[in-house]
Write a structure and sequence with these properties.
The complex is a heterodimer of chains A (785) and B (157). Chain A has 785 residues and is α+β, with helices and mostly antiparallel strands. Helices cover 28% and strands 24% of the residues of chain A. Chain A is globular, with a radius of gyration of 28 Å. Chain A starts with 26 loop residues before the first helix and ends with a helix. A five-stranded mixed beta sheet of chain B has the order 2-1-5-3-4, sandwiched between helices. The radius of gyration of chain B is 15 Å and the shape is globular. The termini of chain B are far apart. Classes of the chains: A alpha+beta (785), B alpha+beta (157).
Chain lengths: 785, 157
Amino acid sequence: MKDSHAPARPAAPPTHSIGVRTPLIDGVEKVTGAARYTADLPVGPTLVGAIGRSPVAHARIRSIDASAALAIPGVRAVITGEDFSAPYGVIPITQNEWPLARGRVRYRGEPVFAVAAEDQASAFAALAAVRVDYEELPAYFTAEAARAADAVQLHDKKPGNLERVVEQDFGDVDAGFAAADLVVEKRFESAEIYHGQIELNATIAQWDPVQRRLTVQSVTQVPYYLHLTLAQTLGLDESQVRVIKPYVGGGFGHRVEPLNFEMATAALARAAGGTVKMELSREEVFLTHRGRPHAFVDLKIGLTAKGEITALQAEVVQRGGAYGGYGLVTILYAGALLHALYKVGAVRYRGFRVYTNLPPCGAMRGHGAVSVRFAIEALLDEAAAKLGIDAFALRRANLIEAPYRTLNDLQVNSYGLPQCLDAVERASGWHERRGKLPKGVGLGLACSHYVSGSAKPVHWTGEPHAVVNLKLDFDGSITLLTGASDIGQGSSTLMAQVAAEVLLLPMDRIRVISADSMLTPKDNGSYSSRVSFMVGNATLRAAESLKRLLVEAAAKRLNVTPEQIEWLGERCVVTGSDQGLGFADCVQAALAEGGTITVKGAWSTPPETQGGKFRGAAVGSTAGFSYAAQVVQVRVDEDTGSVQVEKIWVAQDCGKALNPLALEGQIQGAVIMGMGEGLQEETEYHEGLPLRTNLIDYRLPTIAETPTIEVALIESNDPLGPFGAKEGSEGALHGCPPAIANAIADALGLRLAAIPLTPDRVLDALRARQRERKLAALRREKEVA
Amino acid sequence: MPMRLLKLKVNGRVRQIAAAHSALLLDVLRDTLNLTGSKQGCDGGECGACTVLVDGQPRLACITLAATVEGQAIETVEGQVRGGEMSRLQQAFHEKLGTQCGICTPGMIMAAEGLLRRVPNPSEQEIRDALAGNLCRCTGYTKIIEAVQAAAAEVAQ
């Protein structure tokens, strides 16, 4: 959409906002402290909400007695599961969770009742005064224990506590292994991890008892799903509800489904007939969880002598926690994204999603694919070594040529992985430096990919995937109305850039109002990296539509045809003449036709990108895959087992870099989240009691151990993306854990198959090798003797 | 709950308030003085989002009793805008994208402000040391270091 005439016409504004390093349009508010997050909002007289949680991991609730709590002065409401009309769950077919447990608790820390009181002291006194009588049941804290034949079922009709079993076979897997020159096989393990967004969970719910209206402001990434779920669980009509997303301090998937405390706050507000503010502690945020599940991945890969993958077989067991959440999507993603990164001869996938008596897992950045990508990239590295092929050469032996249809019917329209590989190979000095590094220092490579939005939304209604409205009014400013949730990733900035680019107007003419169900069009939310692609495309179309109206009005005013008008943003001219109109006059001309202008842009994924026809085929389908490659340099201390990541070079095929500054930030953030997962992050439980519910024991990466991350942006110009763009927030995460493991293998010659790669794990492996070597030496001595 | 009158000097202005003996500085700033720029991200002293300056030194407002800083100069992120101009750190965090979701940003900026007052031209290692108690989950820190370096370079000029 670049204006090719711009250089010849000094009157035209500079072209323009796409591809320009653009600070956030809400950045000034953030750096000055003016940005108001949920907990910061002024809402007038407010009651304090608090949640009473289960002290046991699995039990029937015999009774709840709130009479003593209600007798405490200042206590205004106590509610339980009985105060809700229906259960919920983000996936329509697995709605098995109540906002407050009803009849049964399934994990330690599960919300059982909630109180609203005039101040915090009375709220806490009320929590202590509610009497709950539990009848304990056997509890299961590993997938294996929960799957035992005699295990009590957590949910009805789920024998073996299997939430979902996936069996998928594509191509002739056995023939593929038979044709292989090398077959490698290994069990990998990855720990349960947690999003760790720095903003604590908070919700403010306002109930108007006279007009029976509910307004909820919350920390959500999915205001629309929250809206639906509030109406469903509280038994309200959707038109009685308004959901507003204020500034949100990160999400990473924690807030990608409606969460129990949000519904509890709303129900408290209704019960107390006023406004309730609920702020969770960090410990409670950990209990709310929804992070990445612990997983075992049994992986087998067959390769030819040249390194081509003839067959791949993966069995994945995910410890899902107590409720459905996004679980079935997670287990399907793990299978779907075995495809579409490389050409693979045949694929067999077996997935088992298991209910356990632990806080429910959910979607986390890189959803579903991180554990399997760790396994694949680590095992490929091992295979390359066995075949005597360089790690880059092995990847290059398996590249796709776009357009390409995978075995499981995913559509790849653009594929910049070859350029990503070239970029990090060059930047890291791979060939010059590898094998010549000091003792304990190593380099590792891994690749990854991710979707630019799920091609089929969770709630399939047939509506467009994204809708954006633009309002143009007398003052010449354009208000962009979008339901898209900016959670820090910069989506509002991106939409303003897209609109400014099409209209050739300066960014400051565009103002964004986002995520208020009373004002903005519905949007499915910020998940699966859908916003740049889908909402970007809708914005592009809305801006084109507005531009058409302005051009037509200008043409009419100037008595020429619209085709004669050349649009230059702040003014337009009649081609080949000195006639023209300034922007203000164009606006006036357009408004004279019918007043304030509102236009709409909508976008949907084309049917051919929505996946195949088999069960579960929608998961993994997308209109555009991003691709990434990264090289990690580690230094391992062989005395302590500690691994320091010294440098990361990463390249991501983002289609087109709409905002290179923001993209670099997204990619750096994703990579470091992957580093945390690879090296140090892990939730831990003792008999269902979480042991690391603070930010000291749960080790998020700090600035002290985080290396510099060098980013290269690769532009493959996707045919469907807005201006060719694809996602930039998730695809680089998956590669970091395996790149670290591969770098450790390079440094030590040790192949570790479980993350996080903590000092204990590394030291154990080093000691085991030492013992092995000593024993081997002893055996040799004996043989000689 | 026993209350007392406190005279707090916040962003150059003396504010007299009534607060419980046990009142934490962060709660007083946020709830009583409506200065919500300082954030709470943890259950106490883990994340650094509440960092403010007390007599020029970075302090965690969430584990500081308000009564213990009476008479001392307290500075929050809101006080960094002077005469309609953002501080050099605010400007740099904005322009270099040292902020994404923004929740750690006020604490990050105040910790960095404390550093630049002590060490106007810090090395990368000094920046890392000074900000090691401030967690950010969005940026991967690279752009935070670049922002502090850019602000320091501006001071040096």
